[in-house]
Design a protein that fits this description.
single chain; mainly alpha; two-stranded antiparallel sheet; 9 helices; globular
Length: 216
Amino acid sequence: MAAELGMAWSTAVVAFVGAVPLWRYTTNAITVAHEGGHAVFGWLFGSAVKHVKIFHGGAGEMLAGQENWLSRFVSLIAGYLGPSIFGFAGVQLLVHDADPRSVLFLSLVFLAGVLIMVRNLFGVFVVLAVGAILWVVAMRSTEPVQLAFAYVWVWFLLMGGARQVPELFWAIRADDVNDAGLLERHTLIGDVVWLFVFWLLSLGALVYGGALLLRH
């Protein structure tokens, strides 16, 4: 039990380093989950996804074709919440003693779906790079390494999901086109309210998901 708790804490520290001090280098992995969240959840609710693009510095774009009010709304919500949703789903698998490789394989399936929709070279590179790391760990490493990496991965998604939200504040201040502003036009609810919703839910996923990992 002490060893498991120690691994939960140590993997959290590793993920924190990736999500905070090294954010400049790891942000694109969270962008994949962000834009993939737009695309996957929009598609599930009826949007026709035209393309996904990942740019340097953590920027991204998802362009939809035909869509309805609900698919547009869900797609916009699922961007900033995407990493937290995927991270919390991984937490549920781990705390219910699923094979840690299932977390990695499901992530690979998601990345394969995003790769089909990516339409720029840098985006293809990022998706393939993240996928290659997950594949090597899932197929070429020992079970303890797979378990430790799966913990780091879900911690990173949860922390990265919360870490990306403050950047939305600066986008709102700069009056850039952003998800909160698009939601304001779509729902007539202020962009600051949506910023608070994203912040509250992503932090909630991190705190609750993290507590589950530590307690497990």
